[in-house]
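We modelled the chain as a single entity of 185 amino acids. Its sequence is:
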Amino acid sequence: MLNTISGLLGGGAPPTDYESIQTVTVGAGGASSIEFTSIPSTYTHLQIRGLVKNNSTSLTADVNQLQFNADTATNYNTHYLQGDGAAATSAAVANSPSIYAGICARSNASYTSMFGVSVIDVLDYTNTNKNKTVRTLSGVDMNGSGYLFYSSGAWRNTNAITSIKLFVSGNNYVQYSSFALYGIK
């Protein structure tokens, strides 16, 4: 069922058009980032599905950040809309060292079992005639309240994407956090 829902959100691709490339699950002790390297160039698009939490204990949620091909320069832009059931906010972030790519639950004592979920689409990742774009739908439930986060981003670079790094600035992903990378035909 998740493949069907993701297929509809990911541009309507049938579930059979998704192929698992790699899954990374954080072990004991946590991890400062998750990386996918040597990504094959045989697909049209990529999709990353995340189930994540970080070790921050303040407030309730943080934002996953994404970088391509080890590019840490200010070559990324993001637009996002987030809501918590009571209010919605939106913003644009230009000339950033990363793209905002979904929500990540924090390890706040009140929400110890909550993880954030994200579906991140990386479109036309091998097309060397245009900059790369990303869209993300994510959220976290906190016993009846929570956050939804929708974003789009751009990497102002025409290189084919061969590696992806995900991280939460200043924090680590906790054990059992997981990202799965899929290729879309």
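As a brief sanity check on the tokenised model: The chain has one domain: 18-184. The CA atoms of residues 33 and 167 lie 4 Å apart.
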